[in-house]
Automatic annotation (TrEMBL):
Signal peptide: none annotated. SUPFAM superfamilies: P-loop containing nucleoside triphosphate hydrolases (SSF52540). InterPro entries: AAA+_ATPase, ABC_transporter-like_ATP-bd, P-loop_NTPase. The keyword Transferase does not apply. This is ABC transporter ATP-binding protein. Keywords: ATP-binding, Nucleotide-binding, Transport. Residues 357-372 have a biased composition (Low complexity). Transmembrane segments: none annotated. The keyword Protein biosynthesis does not apply. Belongs to the ABC transporter superfamily. It comes from Streptomyces colonosanans. Residues 2-227 form the ABC transporter domain. PANTHER family: ABC TRANSPORTER, ATP-BINDING PROTEIN. PROSITE patterns: ABC_TRANSPORTER_2.
């Protein structure tokens, strides 16, 4: 288990992390979310002993990282996949890490297989694509077969197959009882991967709860009701009837009505009694992205001056009232977009993966099997891509490096 108590980090006048207390438990994938600059990487670096807290502490299994016996066998991390000596082959890079940590060389080939890089193990990593570099970083994190794993943006640069693989890898590692702490800005992916969420904003804890509780605490469920498009008087009649019955009715831009305060069967009965035909009556629950946007709106430091809320916050229709904020949470100016249309399932719920291979959940993996996280197919395109320009050689960020290196 990872435990932070009153964790604070200041860089001069800048407070990157402020009084953060949380626990990351084994047996689950814990997502670590927050806007750009909110302190996620700083927190991860303090967990790994790469930065010293200004005050407070963070421990792994009860020890600060630097006092952890055999740390590299107990904790694996992917922080910056680009921080690799580009002149070394993938195998040599992993071999050097293994030697430093007393890990047997045969483990190198095992993890190369796990991440699907066995076919390019002899190639210099400076020729690797972004996704290949990411896989190499994940291989390094897995090298010591650790019980605690930290991944900072692990799916960055991965293709859809790679994203699915990382998702299943995280779940399989957690299913084996490991502690998996992963940061990401990809909300749709987090919704499918994480069991629990820790959300920070401007260095402070905003939420520490299950993903299910997070979504329900930061979104108001509502019903979407649609009358025949050409019959505006029907819509008005229904609006009056629903309002008289105690519902709150909000017109949406596409002509539908958003109704809160009444259960779906009651809405149906009211429409029937008012002799109004319905073309749609559907439940809507916010996605993780909507819930996240609602919670973190006030903690965003970096925002474009152009169309700041495009796609995420629609302007209210004329005369409409914004939805009520959740007390103590969320932002009053938030207005949820309509749910996306998806393959004949126009109102797919969060947590319900679409049909097909990307919706498949990871099956628990039996311990002791060879390469339990290996992909079914070898890498395709990435292996055949031409070499990328050489990156500046940089040592891999092992937790033995000096602190405050960034
Ligand atoms: N070494 C440093 N010196 C000074 N300021 C720093 C240093 N490291 C981080 N910061 C500042 O601390 C804040 C938190 O940065 P951090 O990289 O932890 O955020 P983050 O949540 O990981 O961001 P992102 O999502 O963009 O990766 C930022 O304002 C950043 O500029």
């Amino acid at each position: 288990m990872i435990e932070a108590v009153g964790l604070t980090k200041r860089y001069g006048a800048k407070t990157a992390v402020h009084n953060l207390s949380f626990q990351v438990r084994p047996g689950a994938v814990t997502g670590f979310l927050g806007p750009n600059g909110s302190g996620k990487s700083t927190t991860m670096r303090m967990i790994l002993g790469l930065d010293n807290p200004t005050s407070g502490q963070v421990t792994i299994g009860g020890y600060p990282y630097r006092k952890l016996p055999n740390a590299s066998r107990q904790v694996g991390a992917l922080l910056d996949a680009k921080a690799v000596h580009g002149g070394r082959s993938a195998r040599n890079h992993l071999l050097s890490l293994a030697q430093l940590s007393g890990i047997p060389a045969r483990r190198v080939d095992e993890v190369l297989g796990v991440v699907g890089l066995q076919g390019v193990a002899g190639k210099r990593s400076k020729g690797f694509s972004l996704g290949m570099g990411q896989r190499l970083g994940i291989a390094a994190a897995l090298l010591g077969d650790p019980q605690v794993l930290l991944f900072d943006e692990p799916v960055n640069g991965l293709d859809p197959e790679g994203i699915l693989w990382v998702r299943n890898l995280m779940k399989a590692l957690a299913a084996e009882g490991r502690t998996v702490f992963v940061s990401s800005h990809l909300m749709s992916e987090m919704a499918l991967t994480a069991d629990h969420l820790i959300v920070i904003g401007r260095g402070q804890l905003m939420a520490d709860m299950s993903i299910k509780d997070f979504i329900s605490a930061n979104s108001a469920d509502f019903a979407r009701v649609r009358t025949p498009g050409t019959e505006s008087q029907q819509r008005e009649k229904l609006t009056t009837a629903l309002t008289e019955a105690g519902g709150q009715v909000l017109p949406e831009q596409d002509g539908a009505l958003r109704v809160t305060g009444l259960p779906l069967p009651r809405i149906s009965d009211i429409a029937h009694e008012a002799d109004v035909r319905l073309w749609e009556l559907s439940p809507h629950q916010a996605s993780l992205e909507e819930a996240y946007m609602r919670m973190t709106q006030g903690a965003v430091d970096y925002r474009s001056t152009i169309d700041q809320k495009a796609g995420l916050q629609q302007p209210l229709p004329p005369g409409a009232q914004p939805p009520m904020p959740v007390p103590g949470q969320g932002q009053p100016d938030w207005y949820a977009p309509p749910p996306p249309q998806q393959d004949g399932q126009p109102f797919a719920m969060p947590g319900q993966p679409p049909a097909g291979p990307y919706g498949a959940a990871a099956a628990p993996v039996a311990a002791g099997q060879p390469n339990p996280y290996a992909q079914p197919a070898p890498m395709g395109q990435e292996q055949t891509q031409p070499a990328a320009p050489a990156a500046a050689p940089a040592p891999h960020p092992t937790p033995t490096e000096s602190e405050d290196a960034r």
